[in-house]
User: Fold this.
Amino acid sequence: MRYREYPPPRRLGDHIECLWTLESEIEVVGDPERVLPDGTLEIVVHYGRPFEEQRRSAWVPQPRAHVVGPMSRALNLRSTSGGRVLGIRLKAPGAASLFGLPLRELADQVVPLEEIGGRALVQELQGNGWDLPRSLVVRACRALGKRLAPIDEPGRLAATASGRIFSGRGGVRVRDLAADLGVGERRLERAFDVAVGLSPKRLARVARLQAVLISFNSRQSSLAATAADCGYADQAHLTREFRELVGTSPAAFRAERHALADLFASEGRLERLLDPALAS
Assistant:
C-alpha cells in the first residue's frame, strides 16, 4: 500500500488536520482490521472498489463517498482489491462549520457524504475519477475552501478544551477544565455536542486510549506499568476500558496485524494528538 499525508493550506489549518491518499495493488480482500477512535472526522472518497465495513456479523461495502463521524469505539474494516482512496481528516470544529449540524448526530456513524454535504460537493471531490494524488488534494482543498465557515465561539471553546484533554492524556476532570476555561460544565458539554460530537468524558477516554497505544508502540512497559502511566486505576481497569473501546483485549490487539490501521495511527501522529504544540 502507498499511503501519503498532505498538510492543508494555512488558511484551512483550523479546519483540516491533513489530507491523505492511499493506493493499493492488492488483488484480494484484506484481513479485518480495527481503526481506533481519535477524536477527528474523516471524509473518505473511494475511486475504486470501496472498503468493507463490519455491521454486526455481515461485511458491507462502504459508500463511495462518506463521512466517518467522531468515533468512541473501533470501526472494523477490510480493504478491497485495487483501492484508490482520498481522505480528508477534519478537526471536529471544522467539520461542524462545514456540515452545519451538531456533530453528536454523526457520532459512531458512517454516513454518505451526499446526505450531509450535498451532491455538488461529492461531484467536485470525485471529479473525473482518480488522478495524480497532488491534483486530488488541490481539488479537495478548492472544494472545501468554498464551503468552510469560520470557527464560531462554541467551536473555539471546544477546540481549546479538546486540546487540553489530549495534552492531559485524558486525565483532566471536566469540572476543573470548565473552571479553568471560565465556563460552566453545561456550557462546555453543549459546545462538545455541537463541535466535537463526543462528550468531554468520552473524549477523555479516547485520549487515554491514544496514550496507551503510544505505550504499546514502545513495547517497553508491562501492562500494569502502562495502566499506571496512563491514569487507570489498575491493569484490570485498563483492560475493561480497552475492551469496551476496541472490542478486544490489549493482549489480543497487540497480536493482531494492523497494516491498514497503522497507516492512520503512526506513533508520530499519536504524539501530535497528545501534544498539540507538535502539530503547530
Summary: Residues 200-218 form the longest helix (19 residues). The first strand starts at residue 2 and ends at 6. The mean pLDDT is 89.
